[in-house]
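Fold these two proteins, one after the other.
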Amino acid sequence: MEAISGRKTIQEIAADHAIHPIQVSQWKKQLLDGASELFTRGKKSKDKEEGQAKEAELFQQIGKLQMELEWLKKTALHSLRVPPAETHAAK
């Protein structure tokens, strides 16, 4: 934060904390590059939860539709079948 505020130079900050100035520069760059994520992280998490809930709802609907399709197939096949008594009489 000191590096971003500009109150001290990178060399002063590095000397105060006994680290290399390049490390301070890298941390400053990382913070500036990722600062927007600090404020949107909560929103992303909420969006992710909503997406997962919607996905679960859609999978449930797919399962229901698959069951209905199987039932319709079985009832359609059953209604198209000729009863065994009629097959013998037709011969």
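Now the second one:
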Amino acid sequence: MAGKGEIKSYRDLLIWQKGMELAKRVYTLTRVFPNDERFGLTAQMRRAAVSVPSNIAEGQARHGRLEFVHFLSHAEGSLAEVDTQLTLAVELGYCRPCDADRSLVTVAELQKMLASLRGKLAGRLTLHHEPTAALVPSH
């Protein structure tokens, strides 16, 4: 890892490290889900959880603030999926609330971290007069 405060790689980002922690927790949690959910909720939760650190890594690796903000937004969407799916897993009785709690706390921490980082990066785009229209997806 890089020296204190020095970011050389996405691996140096606390937000990526915490995303990896969440993905590993989700993999562990879903091991006990029913076999008939292997291609359903289990696969969906794992995909969404892996998508969080993956999007952080891809955005940071592209070296452009605008692209980084875009990928952070994707990570936020995936995080919302994980939050929803954890809640559903508890409600369906696939895991106990106490088993999901630690992951849900990590989700909440990551939501705050992503919003903060995205806001800081978007603010820098405005300060440097880079176009920000691409920050909002057009539908």
